[in-house]
Structures are given as structure tokens and as C-alpha cells.
Design brief:
With 594 residues, the chain is mainly beta. Helices cover 11% and strands 31% of the residues. The protein has 7 helices and 34 strands. Strand 8 and strand 9 form a beta hairpin. The longest helix has 17 residues, at 75-91. It is globular and about 70 Å long. Pfam families: RPE65 (PF03055). Keywords: Dioxygenase, Iron, Metal-binding, Oxidoreductase.
């Protein structure tokens, strides 16, 4: 696999002085913050990978952490900083609760500093052996307190990893060292406006003008991207990636020894990936292939692509049948098809200019559609669009082919009312539906499986793209916090198990971890989630028995500090950490651009 990493600032540090851009062995690299772990977990010798481990060309630095620069005395910097302050003070209209940082960043949404690997000695119950590995979750964590408006979806990506091995646990929290993070860390303050909060109304236009001035005067380089990598993670082709759909993936290395997190760099897969990639790629558990897309505000508005099992990106498939830009956060795949959702949200620049709203807004007059494209299509000539009025999908759960009936089955929550998706998430309701697309007749039917407010659903990963029976959903009361987790029977169309976290306790997306030692049944395994007690001010990882009638808690790991509410995560088994994850290196043919 040939990858390409692009970065502008040092992201890896060494204990010794070495020539810049040298190739380093794994044992000479330390975490991205330069701190040693407080205590290491039991280790074992790594076994050889089936992939030929490439080498990494790494920029080195004598310092342990990018040092914040002194306040620049250059006229362009001072002018832009002054303009930013003036915009926030005089041009920004009164902030709504969804944009007021004092509201958005309150309680367990407030950001934290990094945490090196820290032992978690307080464990109730026994952690099952199949959880030996790492549970890692992404989420927004602004490194600087916002000087103006701030939305929940903004904030630098921070990864929270719980490494578990032989009954012991260690927590580590690290920023994703994006270009934007490094730039603003060095400056000591925000420089680039965030997409969901900074580009609104006249003030947003003024901020965009200041950003253009910063680019023209060399203060920032737009070619390096301004993504936050704060939404999710994906593990494919032997690499772990932190994802945010507005930018390229950032490659991450997770230490098998103590769970420490290192940002390798921004990845364009040898110049084959541009602009960005969905934060929800899908990996087929049988073939190892990974499927993804990107959407932009210029033609082609949607582009579909895939990676082979080794992580090599294949050619783009532009979707030319779309006539206007859309907002597409997630999609679904089956063994035969890829499904895309054209929902009642899209780009509305006039809403920003004339009403001071956000460029992404709802369109109640639009008829929602599902696009169906053959999974291995090389162009969009076989794309078919099916109207599904009022069905707004933000997150899909699973999809599969019904070959006997010539149909596709899709499982996903329907978000209503969609106009509150960005501004008032506590007012939205997500009811899970089963959608049947008859490819012969062209008809679409819908069946509601639950009227509970359920989102952030997962299935046994071995059943992705295949017919499955159970989904594990976060219970939103209200969104975006989850008051519990629900096991939904997709055949019976009802909830068969519920675990409420208790008064003042909230979690996020649940994660299903199959029991590899006893995997005869689809639901043989455990559901895990970070849960925060807002009364006690402490966080835990809960491990729940997925087959029990009440999702019984079999183990609870008290964390050394709270973990803020966040977005999506995944579990990586210990075997994958040692065998499938490439060492902290990449081929010498790859390049780092400055």
C-alpha cells in the first residue's frame, strides 16, 4: 500500500537529536505530546504482519511540543487579529444557545487537556477477555476558548482511547495533530473560522475575507486543509484514520503497549484523494474492501470511490446525475449496491447572506430520494433514484440484498423535524425504520421499527452488508446526549432489551464487540460505552452483556478523569493492534510536503 502524508508542522518528536526527515524505528518515537506514559500495560512481542510494513519519513524536532510563537509584530498579522476581534465585538448578532460557547461548552461538553496513558485501577467486575484491545472514540475538543460563536460540531478532534489487556486498563486522550491544530497551537489563538459557526451572515462573510487575507499574506496555507478530524475513526488497510468529512483523513498510530496515540499525518493516498472523505466509510468484513464518498459544493457534487483490502484507493466515480449540492453525512452498502441519501438539507448560500443563517440549511419543499448504484460501478450510468418523501437519514445502521425478492433492505433512523438538525438538536426525534426498495417495480415501502428516540446505531461488524437481526442504539433523551442503550430486534420490530444509565448519567454511541471465542450467535458479545455521571463528575466505561434481557453490566472501569461527550468510535482487537496495524512507518516513496 502506498500512502501519501502531507503536513506542515512537526507532529512527532524524538528523545535524541537526529537529522530532520529521517526514518525512525518504532522504539525511537514517543507520543505526539512528548510525554512518557504513566504506566505501561503488559506487553507481548509483535508478530509479523501479512502486509509488508512500509517505512515512514518523519519530520523530527528537538522540542517535545510545538512551541507557541511570540505574538507577531508583522503588520498583516496584527491587522487580521484586530479585524477578527472587531467582527466578534461589533458585527456578530446575539448568539443563539446553539452558537453560544458558554452554553455549548457547558458541563461535560467542556474541553480538556491531553492525558498521557494513565492506569485505571478501579474496575468493578471482570472485563471479558474478548475486550483485550482498544476502544477509541473521537469528538470535538477546542484547544482555545472560542472568541465568537461556536457550534457543537466544531472543535479540534480529540481521541480518547481505553487500552485493555488481561484485566487491566489504561486511558489516553490526545489531540489529532491536524494542520489547523498545529497552526493555532503555535499562534496561541484561533485563526481560521470553523465551518458550522464561523460562516454565518455578514459577520461570516467578513471572517471569510479576513481568512483570505491571511492566506494571501502567507499566515495560513489553504492547500493543507482546515479540517478538524473530530467525527469518527476507521481502520482499514492496516491503518487507523481519524476522520472529518471536510478534509482528508489523518493517519493515526495506536501503541499496542500502552494505548498512546500518535498522529502520523494527513493522507491523500498517493495523490489519489482530494478535498475530503466521508467520516462514515464502510468496510466489508468478508472482502476487506472499504467504500466511501465525498461531497462538495461544485460539480461533481458527489463522488464515490473505494479502497481494496490493502488500502489502495481505486479511481473515482463521479455522480453526475445530481444537479445541485447536497448534505450527505452517511451512506450504506450491500454486497451488490451503494446507497446515497439526498435528504431535505442542502447548501443555501442566500440564507447566509440575506438572513444571517448557516450555508447548510433545510429545504422542506424538497422530496427526499435514495440513490442506488452498483457497488463496483465505474461510472454513474446505472444510478437509479427512488423518491422516499419525508425520509431524512443522517446515520444508517445496515443494509442488505434480498435476492429472492429482487429488493434492497435499509435500516436507518428517520430524523424529524430535519430543520432542527443543526440549531436545536434537543428538539429532533429519530425513529428507526425499515425501508424496502423493490428494484423490479421501482416501489419503496417503509415500516417503523421503533418510535423511541434512537440514533448512533451499530450492529455486529461481521454482519455489515448482510441481513442481521439486532441493532444497538443510543437512547436520546434529549439529543445529543444518550440516557441509555437499546437492543432493537429488526425482525420483530421492537425493543428487546434496555439499559438506562440512571439519573444524571449520559453516554454516547454504543459499540458492539463480538465474543470471538463464542460467536455462534449474532448477539454473542458485549456493548461498551463511555458514560458520564454529571452528579459525581466522573466517567466510566460500561461493559454490558448483549444477550442478557436487561443488557446487564458485567464490568465498569472508572476512568482517571471525565471523558467529554463526543461522536463516533470503534474497537480494535489486540490481535489487530499487533498483527494488522502497520508499524509506525510508511514507504520511502511517500512524501511529506511543507
Amino acid at each position: 500500500m502506498s500512502l501519501c502524508f502531507l503536513t506542515r508542522h512537526p507532529i512527532i518528536t524524538t528523545r535524541t537529536t537526529l537529522p530532520p526527515y529521517c526514518s525512525l524505528p518504532l522504539n525511537s518515537i514517543i507520543s505526539s505530546s512528548g510525554e512518557k506514559p504513566a504506566q505501561s500495560l503488559p506487553t507481548r512481542r509483535s508478530t509479523s504482519s501479512s502486509h509488508a510494513p512500509p517505512m515512514l519519513i518523519i519530520p523530527t524536532s528537538k522540542t517535545k511540543q510545538p512551541q507557541r510563537r511570540a505574538v507577531s509584530s508583522s503588520i498583516p498579522v496584527m491587522v487580521c487579529d484586530a479585524l477578527d476581534q472587531a467582527i466578534n465585538k461589533y458585527m456578530e448578532p446575539p448568539l443563539s444557545p446553539s452558537m453560544d460557547p458558554n452554553h455549548v461548552l457547558a458541563g461535560n461538553f467542556s474541553p480538556l487537556d491531553e492525558l498521557p496513558p494513565t492506569d485505571c485501577p478501579d474496575i468493578d467486575g471482570e472485563v471479558p477477555a474478548c475486550l483485550d484491545g482498544a476502544y477509541i472514540r473521537n469528538g470535538p475538543n477546542p484547544q482555545h476558548y472560542p472568541r465568537g460563536p461556536h457550534h457543537l460540531f466544531d472543535g479540534d478532534g480529540m481521541l480518547h482511547c481505553l487500552r485493555i489487556s488481561r484485566g487491566r486498563a489504561s486511558l489516553c486522550s490526545r489531540y489529532v495533530r491536524t494542520y489547523k491544530y498545529n497552526l493555532e497551537h503555535e499562534a496561541g489563538s484561533p485563526l481560521v473560522p470553523n465551518f458550522f459557526s464561523g460562516i454565518r451572515g455578514v459577520a461570516g462573510i467578513a471572517r471569510a475575507a479576513v481568512s483570505i487575507t491571511r492566506a494571501l499574506t502567507g499566515q495560513v496555507d489553504p492547500r493543507n486543509g482546515f479540517g478538524l478530524a473530530n467525527t469518527s475513526l476507521a481502520f482499514f488497510g492496516g491503518r487507523l484514520f481519524a476522520l472529518g468529512e471536510s478534509d482528508l483523513p489523518y493517519a493515526i498510530h495506536l501503541s499496542p503497549d500502552d494505548g498512546d496515540i500518535t498522529t502520523i499525518g494527513r493522507c491523500d493516498f498517493d495523490k489519489t484523494l482530494s478535498f475530503g472523505m466521508t467520516a462514515h466509510p464502510k468496510t466489508d468484513p468478508d472482502t476487506g474492501e472499504t467504500f466511501a464518498f465525498r461531497y462538495t459544493f461544485v460539480r461533481p457534487f458527489l463522488t464515490y470511490f473505494m479502497f481494496d483490502a490493502d488500502g489502495t484507493k481505486l479511481p473515482d466515480v463521479p455522480i453526475t446525475s445530481l444537479t445541485r449540492p447536497l448534505f450527505l453525512h452517511d451512506f450504506a452498502i450491500t454486497k451488490k449496491y451503494a446507497l446515497f441519501f439526498d435528504i431535505q438539507m442542502g447548501v443555501r448560500p442566500m440564507n447566509m447572506i440575506l438572513k444571517g443563517g448557516h450555508p447548510i440549511g433545510s429545504d422542506p419543499a424538497k422530496v427526499t430520494r435514495i440513490g442506488v448504484l452498483p457497488r463496483y460501478a465505474t461510472d454513474d450510468s446505472q444510478m437509479r433514484w427512488f423518491e422516499v418523501p419525508g425520509f431524512n437519514i443522517v446515520h444508517s445502521i445496515n443494509a442488505w440484498d434480498d435476492d429472492e425478492e429482487g429488493a434492497i433492505i435499509l435500516i436507518a433512523p428517520n430524523v424529524w423535524p430535519i430543520e432542527h438538525m443543526l440549531a436545536s438538536m434537543d428538539l429532533i426525534h429519530c425513529s428507526v425504520e425499515k425501508v424496502r426498495i423493490d428494484l423490479k417495480s421501482g416501489t419503496v415501502s417503509r415500516t417503523q421499527l421503533s418510535d423511541q428516540n434512537l440514533d448512533m446505531g451499530v450492529v455486529n461488524p461481521a454482519f455489515l452488508t448482510k441481513k442481521n437481526r439486532y441493532a444497538y442504539m443510543g437512547l436520546g433523551e434529549p439529543m445529543p446526549k444518550m440516557s441509555g442503550v437499546v437492543k432493537l430486534d429488526l425482525e420483530l420490530g421492537k425493543t428487546v432489551a434496555t439499559r438506562l444509565y440512571g439519573p444524571g448519567c449520559y453516554g454516547g454511541e454504543p459499540q458492539f464487540v463480538p465474543d470471538v471465542n463464542n460467536n455462534e450467535d449474532e448477539d454473542e458479545g458485549y456493548v461498551v460505552s463511555y458514560v458520564h455521571d454529571e452528579v459525581k463528575g466522573e466517567s466510566r466505561l460500561l461493559v454490558m452483556d448483549s444477550k442478557s434481557s436487561n443488557l446487564d453490566v458485567v464490568a465498569s472501569v472508572k476512568l482517571p478523569r471525565r471523558v467529554p461527550y463526543g461522536f463516533h468510535g470503534l474497537f480494535i482487537s489486540e490481535d489487530d493492534l499487533y498483527k494488522r496495524q502497520h508499524p509506525l512507518s510508511i514507504s520511502s516513496s511517500s512524501r511529506i510536503l511543507f
